[in-house]
Amino acid sequence: MTALGTFVLVTVALGFFGSTGWLGAVVMGLVMGALLGAIIFGLVESGTMAMDGSDWAPAVPTALPGAAPMAEALGDPEVAAVVSEDIGPAGDAQLDTPREGMAEGRNIYDRLPPEPEAQAEPDNLRAIKGVGVKIEGALNDAGITRFEQIAALDDARIDELSNQIGRGAARIRGDDWVGQAKELARNTKGTA
């Protein structure tokens, strides 16, 4: 059908708009129709099956071809046995120990803020000199809501908080928040 359509189209186009004349247009249409028909027939009737996902799946790796005879020729039967085995995943292989040179304290869970006690109400952190509304919000965002948490801060955690708090971070050490928090924690425990 497509070849017939091509024949008609080429014949009409060349007959009306070409300089080859009517007979030349018919011959040209026949040639073009035959060529297009042969191409389409070759594509459709070639017997090639349509491809699906299995055609694109990676092949299962096997032993290297010719590796076993090469190892046997070298005279080592152990190597020949290993080389001729199938290559594949090693099951449930896992890293048992940390790599050498891995820095201590790189565990992300070590850097999490201590979890506040579930039953405890948050303390008014603005009772500490140097803590205002914005800094209290930044501390709460960092998971610090109780005086005990500030009292337990070490230098590394103070440095992390300094990055989160911003401009007022110098007051952590300057106003001795840890000392104030220890005193306030003692006072609030005594009244509770």
**Proportion of residues in extended strands:** under 5%
Number of extended strands: 0
Largest sheet descriptor = none
Q: Which descriptor suits the 3D outline?
A: elongated
Task: Provide the CATH top-level class of one domain.
Answer: Mainly Alpha
The total of helices stands at 10
Q: Summarize model confidence as the mean pLDDT.
A: 73
Sequence stretches where pLDDT stays below 50 over 5 or more residues: none
**CATH fold assignment of one domain:** DNA polymerase, domain 1
Rg, Å, rounded: 41 Å
Specify the CATH architecture of one domain. Orthogonal Bundle
- The level of helicity is 40-55%
Structural class: mainly alpha
For the termini, the CA-CA separation is 95 Å
Q: List the secondary-structure elements in sequence, H or E.
A: HHHHHHHHHH
Describe the protein.
The N and C termini lie far apart (95 Å). The relative contact order is 0.07. It is built from ten helices and no strands. The protein is an all-alpha fold.
Summarize the topology.
Elements: H1 2-17, H2 21-44, H3 53-56, H4 67-74, H5 77-84, H6 133-141, H7 147-151, H8 155-165, H9 171-174, H10 177-191
Helix pairs in contact: 1-2, 4-5
List keywords for this structure.
mainly alpha, 192 residues, DNA polymerase, domain 1, single chain, elongated
How is this structure best summarized?
By secondary structure, this protein is mainly α. Among the domains are: 2-43; 120-191, Orthogonal Bundle (DNA polymerase, domain 1). 54% of the residues lie in helices and 0% in strands.
